[in-house]
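In this section we walk through a basic example: taking a raw amino acid sequence and producing a predicted 3D structure, encoded as C-alpha cells. The instruction is simple. Fold the sequence below.
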Amino acid sequence: MKYYKYLLLVTTVFILAILSACSSNNSASSPKQDSDSKERYKFGVVLMTLNSEYWKIVMSGAKDAAKELGVDVQFFGPPEESQYDQQNKMVEDLVTSGADAIIVAPSQAEAILPALSTATQKDIPVILADADAKFENKVSFIGTENFKAGKLGGEFASKQLNLKNGDKVAIIRGQLGSKTHDDRTNGFKQALKDKNINFIIQDAQSDRLKAVNVMENILTANSDVKAVFATSDEMALGASKALENKKKTEIPILGFDGTPNGLDALKNGKLTAEIAQKPYQIGYSAVEAAYKTKQGKRVEKRIDTGASVITEKNVKEEIEKINGYLGK
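The resulting C-alpha cell sequence is shown next.
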C-alpha cells in the first residue's frame, strides 16, 4: 500500500513538473516570436526634388513616422522638379534593389506610369504622395486636393483683392503637364469664372529665378496686371523679386505651399496670402500607409491632408508650427 502511495506521489509530482515546464516555455517564447516576426521594412521615397524647403518638411514627417513605426526610409530626388526622367530612373532602381514599398511624388504623371507598373509587377506597393497619377494599382494617393486648394486661392482673390470684370491676373505655374500645377491653376480659375478675368498663364517650372524672368516679361507686356497667383512658393518669391525690380510692389501676390521662406515673405509684406498645404502630414501619412499595407491592413484609396489660407493675421502661428517640424 505504501508502495502505491509513493508511486502516486511521484507520478503527480512528475506531471505537475511537466505542466509547469510547458507553461514556462509558452510565456517565455511568445515575446521572442513576436520580436522575430516583426520585420524592419525598407521604404524608398522618391520626391520631385530634395532641394526645396517644402520637400524638406515632407521628409521631416516621413522620418518621424519611420522612427515611430520602426522602419527605414531612404530619400531620392533630382536636382530640379523638371527632371522627371531622373525621377523615373530612381523608381526603377528601387524596384531592382527590392524596396519593401515605394512612395512617389511624381513630377510628370504620365511619364512615371511605366516605372510604377514595374514596381507592382514585382509586388512592391506604390503610394503616391503630394501629386497624383492615373495609376490604378496604387495603394493610395496622399496629399492636398489641389483643385480645391487652388479654388481657395481664387475665392480669396475674388473677395479680398477687388478684382473686376476684364482685369488681368497673372498665373505663374509649375511645369506644363504636371497634374499638381494643372489642378491648382484650374481651381484658381474656376473660383473667378464669373468675373470674366483675363488670365495670363506662364510656366516657370517651380524655379525662383525663372519666375523672376517670366514675371518681368509679363509686366513688360501687361503693365496693368492686377494680381499674381503662383502655384508654388519658389515662384511666388521670384514674382515678388520681379515686382520689386519693376517697382510694382503694390500688386498683390498669392503663394502656394506654406514654406518657411514663403511665410517669412508674407510676414514681411512681400506676399499677400499663402495657400498652405500640410507637407509634414503628407510625409507622415505616406510612410504610415506603406507600413499598414505591409502589415495587411486596409488603407484608404484617397487621403486628403488639407489646405488653408494664411494671411498676416495668422502667419506667426503657422511659422511657429513649421519651425517645430524642422527642429528650429
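Looking at the output, two observations stand out. The longest strand covers residues 168-173. The radius of gyration is 27 Å. In the next section we compare this with other chains.
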